[in-house]
Amino acid sequence: MIRFVADENFDRRIIRGLLRRLPEADVQTIQELALNEASDAQVLDWAAANDRVVVTHDVNSLVDVAFERVRVGAAMNGVIAAPDKLGIGQAISDLALIATCLDPEDLRNQVLFLPL
């Protein structure tokens, strides 16, 4: 199952809904990890070192940093970008589908944009 880390601006209602729908989901938040002030690069470094896929609403800068990591050959476990305007229910459904149907290797060096 995919293990997620939610960046600091990710909607906690989505996380709660995902955990209600899929109690076995493994989701950590940047706040729980005391990485609130970390740069996008530091978040992606931590995610790579800890086998986590980053979920974010930051469809610009974090995604750009992720693409740059792939370009230079740095480890990147994957990013899932959900635009702010995406409905909470849709985001929960898409993340549950990703968590249960994909293997971590499927997301390595990938950026997925929701909705699927």
Shape: globular
Low-confidence stretches: none
Instruction: Provide the succession of SSEs.
Output: EHEHEHEHHE
Mean pLDDT across the residues is: 96
- Tally of contiguous helical segments: 5
| Strand runs, count | 5
Cα(first) to Cα(last) distance is 18 Å
Main β sheet profile: 5 strands, parallel
Share of helix, binned: 40-55%
Please tell me how large the radius of gyration is: 13 Å
Give the strand order of the largest sheet, numbering strands 1, 2, ... along the chain. Answer: 2-1-3-4-5
Structural class, judged by helices and strands?
alpha/beta
Question: Proportion of β residues?
Answer: 15-25%
Characterise this structure.
- The protein is an alpha/beta fold and 116 residues long.
- 43% of the residues lie in helices and 16% in strands.
- The chain has a five-stranded parallel beta sheet, with helices on one face.
- Helix 3 links the parallel strand 3 and strand 4.
- Helix 1 crosses helix 4.
- The longest helix is centred in the last third of the chain and has 14 residues.
- The protein is globular.
Give the topology, please.
Elements: E1 3-6, H1 12-21, E2 26-29, H2 40-49, E3 53-56, H3 61-72, E4 79-81, H4 88-101, H5 104-107, E5 111-113
Parallel strand pairs: 1-2, 1-3, 3-4, 4-5
Helix pairs in contact: 1-4
